[in-house]
Design brief:
Largest sheet of chain A: 5 strands, parallel
Radius of gyration of chain A: 24 Å
Helix content of chain A: 40-55%
Structural class of chain B: alpha/beta
Structural class of chain A: alpha/beta
Strand order of the largest sheet of chain B: 1-13-12-11-14-15
Largest interface: A-B, 68 and 66 residues
Number of helices of chain B: 17
Bound molecules: iron/sulfur cluster
Number of helices of chain A: 22
Number of strands of chain B: 15
Helix content of chain B: 40-55%
Number of strands of chain A: 13
Strand order of the largest sheet of chain A: 11-10-9-12-13
Shape of chain A: globular
Strand content of chain B: 5-15%
Oligomer: heterodimer
Strand content of chain A: 5-15%
Shape of chain B: globular
Distance between the termini of chain A: 57 Å
Chain lengths: ~475, ~475
């Protein structure tokens, strides 16, 4: 079963990287073999959890020993406007005895307890490595529990060892397609109902976008899965249009919704001014093509015109402050790309980026945009980044939280672009937030102080406030 | 105190908001206290990533940690190849002084024979004979953080320590349990050195995890006890063993070196600190330095000033076992009533706890037991439950991701005890003042009348529920 699913996911026609590969290459899957002793990153279970946990009113139960949940719960910044149940960490905490006797009974008991105590609309059950190895049939347990308890109990088959975080995202998407989407009918539908896929409402980002959609008259029927509610996700099949948020992680959901229910999808992004406007335009146009009132196009243009002029006006004050300032992007992802134009519009210079997770086309696109001398690194070692920063090749680094210390130890400003951050960067307001954060960081007086040499390291003839060389 | 309820049976199948952290993570922390070490998890990559993020969030430091990256195929066929490749790769890339391998649920379920793999590795890699390599068995599905820490320290003792014919005057070993923060270790070093003694801490987190500014980027741990120092532990006069979970390592050390050991179940509290100081004074033959005398005086004074606010306060504590013991004992010393002591795992030290209810449980158990408590003492994960029942939370232990300087908190010795006394005492004090200002009746229960987080979110009660 899981093997078939994996092949299916590896075969994703909606994924352009994948389509560029030969049949044989595709079989091998998209997760590169990891090098023992030189690998980093989360597992498939991690990825599945990232994709589904924002469904806030559901219970998320991790079947496995304490490692999978105990070290990781409560570590993401995804926000909910209502139920907080998703923030509760549930695990079967398998013990040695469970390994010997099998964990199915305990799992069933755990599901029952959760249903009785919290009465969630559904329970997601995550398979992890150890129960997969001992052969716990969690699909059967979930089926049984669903029948007994009269609630959807959904097995998420993404044990860590099958692959990377990204693969786990996709498997989560498959789970929704197999068990959730299409199981609930909405009370009302409108011609402007949309489904957003791959937006997790980190730091409340969706809330910077939603008011604009409201104003235009576009209704988010379901968001997979930011600020999500189980029943809304289950109604996604009645959307008129799907937007797949620009990462490749959940494109399988968009494509299969098109296959099954004839819902067209497009890939868009909420990051960056021009991408944001493009996204709104595409939404309006496609909805009109599907029969929505033409008036939304005008309303969309109105909103875009107003927001764009507002955002450029608001970015204006940053220009002189950002003049000559160079940014090193180190995100490993594509997300940053849609922000680049906006950042450059605000006067920053982007000196380079990692392209570890980018596709060939992405790289070509970047080359076209930025010219040949622009740095793109497939695999830049921490030591090399450290050296670059130390040698003042950039004034600020923007990356995920894990690499922050490379910058901070080099005494170079750093800004979080990933999941643990607290400031939303989506939409027009998000870009202003981002520039404000960059400005705050760059102009902080600590940088001068922390680069001062200790008094005992100063040469006898140097002035006490001399700046050290190379800082 | 009424009747003591020991280990009420928890019939729950689902652990809800776990307090427990897994063994390999504890092992990783121990390895991080060795200079130029690379901890390596023998398992799939996810476990490593989660562990790493947790430690990064707590210490706000770069954390070296590697994985043997077991995938589906190697999981079925066995992981020796991955292990060998990982060790070789790490050795080539980073040349660490020690590679500390911790198994995980994935490799333990398969039942891989680690001592067999160790011999096989040595046999097949004669060129790496000089490489220090520690293998610790740390399955995710049994024990917890403390056990992993203990297994790693024991492994290090067995692999690295050398017996010695001679004794170095004034050199002492300290087996420092994981309930000691880097700040605690630093404080202990200060105390010990003030008697003219030179301590070797195993592990020494104070040098690696308390905030370093390296001149160059390093992929391994930076600072900590060196392999050479560990090797010379056999020449010490005495070993101080701090914490119940260090007993196994202490036994291994004694067996190997014949250095006699003195055991301390805690170093928080006046009497506990007195015992340490007396031991050091006797060993060194020196009088107690003036600084420590002054510190003792101010602790006594602080206890007198502070006891008003502790008397009969009802407190729930949920921490790793040895820290749980240290904190509940200290609170009892101060006249507070520990209504519940919750531990993530079952260990011998729980038998000694002075608390109305002692149980092995999770944060949701704390939430149930602490409903009418005045305070909860636990890690940052306790904040959701504490906010729900409207009881302030004092953060201790690991992970503490929503406070700065988590690793540098000091709770040992006269000075550390005083610090803890004031931190908790101030929570009670400020609440009394707060309530007076609001015109509430004295002793009004927090959270009863007002929307939590609005009045106290700014931190007067320290909960800043979020
Ligand atoms: S790799 Fe496996 S055992 Fe490790 S966290 Fe992921 S699912 Fe759990």
């Amino acid at each position: 079963m899981l093997q078939e699913k994996l092949q299916d996911v590896f075969n994703e026609p909606g994924c352009s990287t994948n389509q560029a590969k030969s049949e044989k290459e595709r079989k091998k899957g998209c997760s590169k073999a990891l090098k023992p002793g030189a690998a980093a990153g989360g597992c498939a279970y991690d990825g599945a959890m990232i994709a589904l946990q924002p469904i806030a009113d559901a219970a998320h139960l991790v079947h496995g020993p304490i490692a999978c949940l105990g070290n990781s719960w409560d570590n993401r910044g995804t926000k909910s406007s209502g139920s907080q149940l998703y923030r509760t960490g549930f695990t079967t905490d398998m013990s040695e005895l469970d390994i010997i006797h099998g964990g199915e009974k305990k799992l069933y008991k755990a599901i029952k307890e959760i249903v009785q105590q919290y009465d969630p609309p559904a329970v997601f059950v995550y398979q992890t490595c150890v129960p997969a190895m001992i052969g716990d049939d969690i699909e059967a347990v979930c089926k049984f529990a669903a029948k007994k308890l009269g609630k959807p109990v959904i097995p998420v088959m993404a044990p860590g060892f099958v692959g990377s975080k990204n693969l786990g995202n996709k498997l989560a998407g498959e789970t929704l397609l197999d068990h959730v989407i299409g199981t609930v009918e909405p009370e009302v539908t409108t011609p402007t109902d949309i489904c957003i896929v791959g937006e997790y409402n980190l730091a409340g980002e969706l809330w910077l976008v939603k008011p604009l959609l409201d104003e235009i008259g576009i209704r988010i029927l379901s968001c997979i899965s930011g600020d999500g509610r189980y029943n809304e996700v289950a109604q996604a099949h009645r959307a008129r249009l799907t937007m797949v948020v620009c990462s490749q992680a959940l494109v399988n959901v968009g494509r299969k919704m098109q296959e099954r229910w004839g819902i067209p999808y497009f890939e868009g992004s909420f990051y960056g001014v021009s991408d944001m406007s493009d996204t709104l335009r595409t939404m309006a146009r496609m909805l009109v093509e599907r029969g929505a009132d033409k008036a939304i196009i005008d309303r969309t243009e109105g909103v875009i015109a107003r927001e764009e002029s507002r955002v450029w006006r608001r970015l204006e004050p940053y220009k002189p402050r950002f003049d000559g300032k160079r940014v090193l992007l180190f995100t490993g992802g594509v997300k940053s790309w849609s922000m680049v134009t906006a950042l450059e519009g605000a006067g920053l210079t982007i000196v380079g980026t990692s392209t570890k997770k980018s596709t060939k086309e992405d790289k070509e696109r970047i080359k076209k945009m930025k010219g040949e001398e622009f740095h793109q690194w497939d695999d830049l070692k921490p030591r090399d980044i450290y050296k670059m920063l130390r040698d003042s090749e950039a004034d600020i680094m923007m990356s995920g939280g894990r690499s922050q210390f490379i910058a901070l130890k080099a005494k170079v400003p750093w800004l979080d672009l990933n999941q643990e951050r607290h400031t939303p960067y989506a939409g027009y307001d998000g870009i202003v937030n981002l520039c404000e954060e960059i400005d705050k960081t760059l102009s902080n007086p600590i940088w001068r102080q922390v680069r001062l040499a200790a008094p005992w390291d100063l040469k006898p003839d140097a002035k006490p406030d001399a700046r050290p060389v190379g800082a | 105190m009424g009747n003591i309820q020991r280990f009420p049976h928890s019939a729950k199948a689902a652990s809800t908001n776990p307090l427990k952290m897994s063994q390999p993570l504890g092992a990783a922390l121990a390895f991080l206290g060795v200079d130029r070490c690379m901890p390596l998890f023998h398992g799939s990559q996810g476990c490593t990533a989660f562990g790493l993020v947790l430690l990064v969030r707590h210490f706000r430091e770069a954390i070296p940690l590697q994985t043997t990256a077991m995938d589906q195929v190697s999981t079925i066929l066995g992981g020796y190849e991955n292990l060998e490749q990982a060790v070789r790769t790490i050795h080539e890339r980073n040349a660490p002084a020690l590679i500390g391998v911790a198994t995980t649920g994935v490799t333990e379920t398969k039942g891989e024979d680690m001592s067999g793999q160790y011999s096989l590795f040595r046999q097949r890699n004669p060129a790496l004979a000089g490489l220090k390599l520690v293998f610790a068995n740390t399955p995710d599905f049994s024990g917890g953080f403390e056990d992993g820490f203990s297994a790693a320290v024991t492994g290090i003792v067995e692999e690295v320590v050398q017996p010695s014919e001679t004794t170095m005057k004034g050199q002492i070993n300290v087996l420092a349990g994981c309930h000691l923060s880097p700040g605690d270790v630093e404080e202990l070093r200060d105390i010990i050195e003030s008697f003219g003694l030179s301590p070797i801490f195993l592990p020494d987190l104070s040098l690696s995890m308390s905030g370093r500014q390296p001149d160059d980027f390093t992929a391994t741990s930076l600072g900590g006890v060196t392999v050479d120092q560990i090797a010379s532990m056999g020449a010490s006069e005495l070993t101080l063993v701090i914490g119940e979970h260090m007993r196994v390592a202490a036994a291994a050390l004694e067996l190997k070196t014949d250095v006699r050991s003195v055991f301390f179940d805690r170093l928080t509290g006046l009497e506990a600190s007195d015992r340490l100081v007396r031991t050091l004074s006797e060993l060194s033959g020196r009088p107690v330095p003036a600084k420590l005398r002054r510190q003792r005086e101010t602790l006594v004074d602080g206890m007198l000033d502070g006891h008003f606010f502790y008397s009969r306060k009802r407190i729930a504590v949920a921490l790793e076992p040895d820290l749980l013991y240290a904190v509940t004992s200290f609170l009892a010393d101060m006249g507070a009533e520990v209504i519940a002591a919750v531990s993530p795992t079952q260990t011998a030290v729980l038998e000694k706890l002075k608390a109305a209810t002692v149980m092995v449980g999770d944060h949701s158990d704390v939430e149930t037991l602490a409903r009418d408590a005045d305070l909860i003492v636990s890690n940052s994960h306790g904040r959701q439950g504490a906010a729900r029942i409207g009881v302030p939370l004092h953060r201790m232990g690991l992970p503490m991701f929503d406070r700065l300087g988590a690793g540098l908190k000091v709770h040992v010795g006269y000075r550390g005890t005083r610090e803890l006394l004031f931190e908790i005492g101030n929570l009670f004090l400020s609440r009394e003042m707060d309530h007076d200002e609001h015109g509430h009746a004295h002793g009004h229960r927090h959270g009863d009348g007002h929307e939590h987080g609005q009045h106290c979110g700014s931190g007067s009660c320290g909960c800043s529920a979020g």
